[in-house]
Write a structure and sequence with these properties.
By secondary structure, the protein is an all-alpha fold. It has helices spanning about 15-20, 25-50, 55-65, 70-90. The chain has a domain at about 30-90. Helix content is about 75%, strand content about 0%. The model has no long low-confidence stretch (mean pLDDT about 85).
Length: about 90
């Protein structure tokens, strides 16, 4: 190769060789799955927060949409503290 000849190589060329010309199908399926899972998690978190009487259930809806599985885990860890606050206030 001379100085004037260049080889067009990109670091992600191996990706096209792995999946071939139909790699875009995997990307679309993955994106739809991720968005669908996010919506299902957000729906569950919001409905559960409403059922438990948590005032800021819309915030938990956004957390479920944005953080996905991490948001669900955070909600499952935190939701019991809301019940303890309600029970504590009702005892007074």
């Amino acid at each position: 190769m001379t100085v004037l000849q260049t080889y067009e190589y990109h670091m992600m060329d191996w990706w096209l060789n792995v999946f071939g010309p139909y790699g875009w199908i995997f990307m679309i399926v993955g994106t739809v799955t991720y968005i669908g899972l996010s919506v299902l998690i957000a729906y569950y978190v919001h409905k559960d927060a409403l059922r438990r009487g948590i005032k800021n259930s819309e915030i938990w809806l956004l957390i479920g949409l944005i953080l996905n599985l991490l948001g669900l885990v955070i909600y499952l860890l935190v939701r019991n503290s809301y019940n303890q606050e309600i029970e504590f206030k009702s005892k007074e």
